[in-house]
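Hey, resending since the last one bounced:
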Amino acid sequence: MVPLPNNPERGPNGYTITMPLSDPANEFLGKIDHIFNMNHKLSGSYFINDSVIEEATSEFPYHYRDNTNRQHNLNIHEYWTIRPTLLNHLRATFSRSAGSRALRSEPMLGPAELGINYGNLPSGPPVSSTLSPNGYFAAAAQAGGPKTSNNYTLAEGLDWIQGRHSFKFGGEVWVRKFFDVTQDAKNGGEYRFNGKATGNSLADLLLGEVSDRFQFRESSYKSNNQWAFYWFAQDTVRLSNRLSFNFGVRHEIDMYPVHPGDLLTAYVPGMQSTCVPQAPTGIVFPCDPGIPRAGIKNDYNNFGPRLGLAYDLRGDGRTVLRGGYGVTYAFQIFNTLQGGQINIPWGFNDLVRNGAAQNYPSTIKLADPWATVQGGNPLPLKVDPSSLKFPPSGNYTSNLLDLPVGLVHQYNFSLQQQLGASTVVELSYVGNRGRKLIGEFNLNQPVLSPTGTTSEANLNSRRPLGGVPFKDLTSFQGLVPSWYDSFQGRVEKRFSQGYTVLGSYTLGKAIDWASWHASATAWSDPRHPEINKALADYDRRHTLAFSFLWDLPFFSQSTGYARALLGGWQVGGIASYYSGAPVDLTIESDVNADGVSGNERPNVVGNWRIDHPSASQLKSGSTWFNLDAFETVKAGEMGTMGRNGVTGPSYRNFDLSLAKRFRVSEEHALSFRLETYNIFDVVNLNSPTGDFGSGEFGKVTSSSPARIFQLGLRYDF
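The C-alpha cells again:
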C-alpha cells in the first residue's frame, strides 16, 4: 500500500507522483424572450451541467473519489410597465443540484483488507480507513453518498417615480431543501500514530499500535428544510440639483431550518427530556414541551436600515461626495446548524486517545480498536426515540434556544473627480464591523490547570460540566466580532478614442476572532475567545488590479482582404497583484492535553523570518520560514505563537486576450478569440504548510496553474 521514497530532494522519505485526473463536463444553455407588447415582456432561461471530477484523496495512490453532479437552473422574469413612472418586475427561479462522491480503488482497501477488526460498517457507499503516521503521510479516505439541494425563489419588485422621489418596494420568499449522506475520513476509522510505541510512527502503523488516537464516525443523513421571507422599502429623494438622499429599510426573516424527521437536539441546562427519557440531562428534542422544531427560536426582529447621500460639491457634476451606511444580517449556512444531525444520538462521533483516561488501555490496537470504547461498537445506531443510544464516551452537538442572528454594519465614504471628458478618479474609505457572528464552541472542553497538573489522565475530570455522561458538547453561539478598514483608490477611463482603462488599489486590514463558523478546534481557550483576535484568514494587505481594452487601429483604413483579415482586432489584458494571506501554525496532536487537536500553537523561541528562497528552490521543498524558531508546547500550555502569525507568498498574474469578429453577411458572423492566462508563466506559490510536526511543516508544496492558452470560435446567425 505504501510506496517507496523516490524524491531524496524532499528528504529521506520524500515521494513525488503525478496522478492523471479527469474532469469531463457537458453544459446546455437555452434562452427565450417574448414581447407581448411595448409594456409587457417575458424572458426565461434554462441551464444544465453534468460533471464528473476525479480526485485523489491522499498524497499517494490510496483511493480515488468521483464527484458527480448535475446542476439545473431555471429563471423566469416578467417585466410590466404599468405606466411610464411605475415599473413592476416579477421573478421566479428554481435550482437543483444532485450528485454523489463515491470512493473507489482497485482493489478497495476497506478496514478488513487493512487488517482492522472494525466490525459493523456504516451503511451507504463503501468506506475505508484513514491512516496518519506523523511525519510520513496521511492516507485519507473521504467519501460521500447522494447529495441533493433544491432552491425555490419568488420575488416581486416595484419602482415608482413620483416628483423628486424614486421609490422602490419589494419582497421575496425563499424555500431551500437539502439532503446529504456524508461519509468522511472517519467512517472506517481514523488512526493516528506518533511513535510512542516503537519510537517510529510508521513502525507503530505496521505493528498495529495506534500510538496517538482513534476517531470514528457514523454516516450522517443530513436534511434541512427552510423558509425565508424578506421585504424592503426605500426612497431616493433629490433635495436639490446638487444633493440627493437615500433611506430605506429591509426586514429579514430567516426561519431556522428543520429536519423532516425532527432529528435535531437542543441544549437546555438542567432540563430532562420527557419524550426521550434516557437522554442525558440538558439534551432535549423537538418533541419536548417548549422546544421548537429547529431547536432554536426564530428571530423576527431583524430590521436593516439603509442610508446614503450624494453631494455635487461644485454644481457642475464633476466633483461628487458620496457616503453610505447599512446593516445586513448573516445568511444562514446549513453547515452551521446540522452538526447535531451527525452526532449523538443520530450519528456517533468519538475520539479515543492513547491512555487518555483510566477507562482506556494504554495502547489502542488495530486488531480490535473498539476495545478502547466504553460499551464497545455502537454501530449501527437507531433513530426510533425509544431505542436511541447515548454512549457515555460520546460527543454531542446541540443548538442553543436563543441563538442570535449575526449582523454587519457597513459604511463607506468617497470622493469622485472627473478629469477631462472620460476619466474618473475615486478615493474611498470602506469599512465594516461584524457583530454576533456565529462561532462553534465546545462548552465542555477541559480546563488547563495553571498548577502544572494537567495531563491526559485527568482529562475528563477537568471538564467544566461535571457530572454529565458525555465528553464534548459543541454548540453554536453568536459571539464572534470582525473588523475591516480600507483605503481604496480607483481610476477609470471610459471607452473613447479606441481604448478603455481601469485601475484600482486597496490598502486594507481584516481582523476577527474566527473566519469560519466551524471554529470549535480553533479556540485556544473557548472561555476566552478574544485570545484568537488576529488577522482574518482572508486578509490581503495590498491588492492592485489593472485592466485595459484596445481596438487596434492598424489596417482600419485598408480595403479588401487586408482590412477583412488584419483590421478590426481587439486586445485586452488584466494584471493583478495581492500580498500574501495569513498562515496559521497549529499542532495537530493534543500535546497540551486540553482534549482538542489542532487548537494548540507552538512556542516562538527565535526569529522565524528568513530571506525567502527562489521559486526553483521552493519547488524542491525549501521552507518559507525558519523552522528552528518554533518548539512544541507542554501539557497545560497554550503556546506563544498567535493565530495567523505568518504571512504567505504574494500573487502576481497577467492575462491577455486577442479577439476579432468577422462579418460573413448581414445576418452571419464568426468571432475568434485567443486567451492566455498567466502569459509570463509566473510561479505563484501557495501558502506553506502550517501543521507543526508534519513532514511538510513550513514547506510550500504547490503553486497556482502555469501558463494556459485557450482558443474559441463562435458563430452567430
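The first helix runs from residue 201 to 207.

Sorry for the duplicate.
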